[in-house]
Amino acid sequence: MNGKVKYGNTKHYIIMGDPIALARARYGRGKFYDSQKNTKLVWGIHLKNQHHTEFQFSGPILMDVIFYMPIPATYTQKKKALTLNQWHYLRPDSSNLVKFIEDVATTICYKDDCI
Question: Of 56, 69, 73, 113, which has the fewest CB atoms closer than 10 Å, so is most exposed?
């Protein structure tokens, strides 16, 4: 393939709002529950509106995800100026941010996130 990557079907999605990391399942009143159920539902609706009635992706996929992290309101003006245009390396970590997106996209963009 002479070093070039060949892409098949591509689709771009934009979800507005602060990035959210996947939280672990919670345990209470004798059972496990998903504390992010409502948030996932709202994000899923935004994703479904952009995916429309297109077929679900199948086979191996490549996800290129960009998160725009807000600067905390508690930072001083000096600290805000120092962090502007810098890479985010604090919590939440990127793996949990991507896991949240993968969970939301399951059954909308693809059948199972194991692909």
Answer: 73
CB count in 10 Å sphere of residue 42: 12
**Token pair for 42:** 């709202």
Phi, psi at 105, each rounded to 5°? -75, -20
The DSSP string of 17-60 is S---PPPPPEEETTEEE-TTHHHHHHHHHHHHHHHTTPPPB-S-
Nearest to 63 by CA among 97, 22, 23: 97
Q: How far apart are CA 79 and CA 73, in angstroms?
A: 11
Looking at beta carbons, which pairs linking 87-93 to residues 24 or more positions away fall under 8 Å? 91/21, 92/19, 92/20, 92/21, 93/21
- Give the whole-angstrom CA distance, residue 49 versus residue 44: 8
pTM score of the predicted model: 0.79
Rounded mean pLDDT of 10-16?
88
